[in-house]
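Practice record 12: protein with FE2/S2 (inorganic) cluster.
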Amino acid sequence: MTSIVRNQWYVAAYGREIGREVFGRTICGESILFWRREDGSVTAMSDRCVHRRFPLSEKPSHLVGDTVVCGYHGFTYDADGKCVAVPGQTRVPRTARLKSYPVVEQDSFVWVFIGDDDRSDSVPVPRAPWLDAEGYTTVSGMEPLAARASLLVDNLMDLSHETYLHGGYIGTPEVANTPITTEVDEDAQVVYVSRHMDDADCPPFYATSTGIQGRIVRWQDIEFHPPCLYLLHSRVAPVGVLPHEDGSDPDGFHVEVVYAITPETEHSTHDFWAVARDFALEDEGVSDFLRESNRTVVLQDVVALDALERVLAGEPDGYQELSINIDTGGLAARRIIAAQAAAGAEQVPESPAVLSTR
Ligand code: FES
Ligand SMILES: [Fe+2]
């Protein structure tokens, strides 16, 4: 059975990746073409020409105004995916239409709806408002992962691995040594995992970016919206410096770490990462440092998860893992995602429709 949750919005790209060039990306096993109309809005449709299946994201396919012209024999499609011209005849076959996808641009991301289009209105687009909000500066990127999305979910839900896999970057002994609390909001389908360290080493990631010298208060508050949006609310401050009673926190440094976990296929994943901070907003040096550091950390995870995927792919089903307290958040996430996948699977067509006669 598929592990991919359908009837769900997924991050397909950053807005900056899509312009007046054809752009293709596989999302949840579906090859999708993205481009911007002349008015700047993003459109998404199947990346396979209905004629002989040539990818419309491959050169010499190209845009002409608000149409895309197939680079093989010239079938031409409008922004809704409807074929408006074919070579050698004036009559365009009625069924010549690409599947189009609901798409929303929000919080610097381009989101695409994978599932039954008529359900897209009833499923909210997840939010990560810091990424283009005033008062924050964001660095971001995307790394391809040759591993299934569930391995990245596991990885992000249990940050004790920072101590071992990311020592010298974001890991210190206190991360692995401090117990977590886990809460699940079943109605809202959100998993919360918190780890509050009151007196911890300051790893280079925060020492260099904040300028704090000495030990810190370090709070990690995870908010995971299964299946695909992970938010880490991170607060650091010198030891003893806490938020005020009214909730204001002028002396704390706040970093919102966002991961959008988008399956490419059953066994590969687009790992979108972003780091938004509320300090040193204009400091390019801090931006460069955080971008480089976080990318290095993400690549450490990529190497580990790619290795895990090779292990899992070579093993028979049914291996019994051993889980401990640190895994409670990851296990809750797995349970919710499995239920979401089972619910969505009931509506999966036998093969994704490319042609539609609507
Ligand atoms: S494959 Fe696109 S026009 Fe022939
Ligand atoms: Fe990691």
